[in-house]
Model the fold of this input.
Amino acid sequence: MSHSQKSNSTSFTTQHQAVAVAAPDRDSVSGRVIGTSQIDNSSSAPFALPGWLASIIVHSLLLVGFAFGLRGCGSGSSLSASGEFDNFREVGIHIRNSKPTDQQNESESNNKSNAEPNPTETTPIPSSQSLNVANSATADSEPPLALSLPDSGPNLIGAGIPQSTSGTGGGSPGELLRPNAIKSSGGSAQAGGTSFFGIRDRATRFVYVVDRSGSMHGAPLIAAKSELIRSLRQLESTHQFQVLFYSGDRQDLLNLDQSRKPGLYWATNINVTLAEQRISSITAGEGTNHKLALLRALRMTPEVIFFLTDADEPSLTAAELEAVRIANRSRTRIHAVQFGKGADLALVNFLKKLAKQNGGTYRYQDTNVFRR
Done:
């Protein structure tokens, strides 16, 4: 081999070794790069906190917050020797009965005196239902009417004594008995009128003359009082009325106002209610004097008189009938109602004449129906 060939062979071998050596260098460099990239990536990732350590930190913060909260609750209270806070007050639910007993009332009054005032509390306004319950209790306290014949509806009606709105604590009895104590339902004064044992009339002033002699004792007088109350309830507050019970020479007028003499009263609810109570206490007496009772009623100048009797003796004579007609002077219509037993067989009697002479109506009522 020539010298040139040896140099070429040596050069090739050297280049080949260089290439062989260079290749591992590049691979190692590449490995180092890859390794460096991996180390750089791991160092740039976010720090991962272990779960158990995070749980401990969160629960510790909650306990610290709870401790500060308890400290704030007890900051305004002082601890007593017994280990309790002085300023704390017990609270609870109090169940109240609808009708408290005396012991409950005393306990409630003590609680109210010891309790702190609350500026936000307001006094409840009584409802209409409570007022309606109070009115019912007042009505139940009134004595019931001992009347059953015929059926006259409820024992008592009316709103009772009107409450004063002037702040003076109420008016005098006379003020409560005037027609403006309770307003009328409207219409004219004669609207509707009233009836008495089937006889209806319209007027503004009514007087009832009722016989209460011994012969009216029992069912007849009970029926008369019951019908009388029913008739009064038909009146309006713009009407005036009076009731006269008579026996012998005695005439008893209803006196609803002790401050003045008996006369015509306005048919307000309170006056009618008072009249019912007076009427329910009437009992039968003795004797009969029709003339005196009629003349007393005419002196009150009513427009209508309802006259009720059993026509027991003595009857009105012709002279007495004439005296009544003259005293009346055609100003008052006199309606006559006769109580009797059985059918009305009399063709003419003094009651029929009385009604005819004074522009009224006659009505016969069999009292046997009251005893059934």
Notes: The radius of gyration is 54 Å. The domain at 190-371 is CATH 3.40.50.410 (Rossmann fold).
